[in-house]
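Researcher: Structure prediction, please.
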Amino acid sequence: MKILNFSLDQSLLNRESVASRRISNLGGLVERYLILVPARFNSKLDLTPQVAVTGVGGKNKPLSAFRLLIKATEILNNTHFDLITVQDVYFLALIAWYLAKKFKLPLEIQVHGFERFSGWRKILARFLLPKATGGRVVSQRLKKQLIADFKIEPAKITVIPITNEFKCDPTPALIPRDESAFIFLTVARLVKVKNIAGELRALAKLRQAYPQAHLWLVGDGPERQRLEHLSAQLNLGEAVKFWGQRKDLSSFYRSADAFVLFSDSEGWGLSVIEAGTCVLPVVMSDVGCAGEVVKDDSSGLVVPVGDESALVKAMKRLLDDGELRQTLVKGLTQELVNLPSQAETFEAYRTAWTKLIRK
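Model: Predicted structure follows.
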């Protein structure tokens, strides 16, 4: 089985990245797994004898897309592949669809969420998703969305959650903190869809009655300057700390008291799974794995998307009730045990690909 994969994840060009380590394990499933990634410079990385990543460079997105199309066409002219799979529902998926049609290959579109779903992106997604031979999603929520909003036949959709390879390392030093404070932690890219601004406004309201409430933000992104300005406007001062991008995530998860995810949209919510692995109670908006892994009042607290008042109430409950925190941690730990293993996930990949190739 030979698979050609289009991905936007440039971390695959780093041998030490989590994505590269995960994808390397696919080598045991296939004869060849080649990943094409738009990048700033041309590059090639052999992860295993079967798995390789090729970065296709371009000074801007249109040039990069054009060069990616040329490179992929050259590869498909010289090597037979059994399936094209693409980790995108917009412009990269358009290239994959064109090539699948040209070379008469089955096409799998992977759906990890619908970030920035507007304008041309919305038009492309509505055009491309029904034309794929099959779709792979990371949650039941996304499957229901594809059925309801895109009229995709349920039989064409495979649900495979993202495997949890994160291990909570108990050895790193804890992060220095005020022991009288209650630390809410968010680990996320600082982009609009994560709605960190809503978290800051909720914290400002919460601190009127609970001055011990603090928020740590681990991650970086284009919204950082705006969020720092908003934090200052809300007079949050030292109650909010921007830590930037960090590698010692276990130290942060183990040092905090609760985890918050208030995104407007998520495909899954991997940071929630990481927090649960480090036995943190979780409050999250009703996105991604909410309802499947994080179940309200059982394995976490789930609030409506964008409802800052509900978020404040949920954060108050965690602050007030230590027994509730323990109950939620136990519930989430059990839910994580029930998630498929990496071996089970990869076998699901193989089954899905085989089914598509035989169509």
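Model: Residues 106 and 356 are 6 Å apart (CA to CA).
Researcher: Thanks, that helps.
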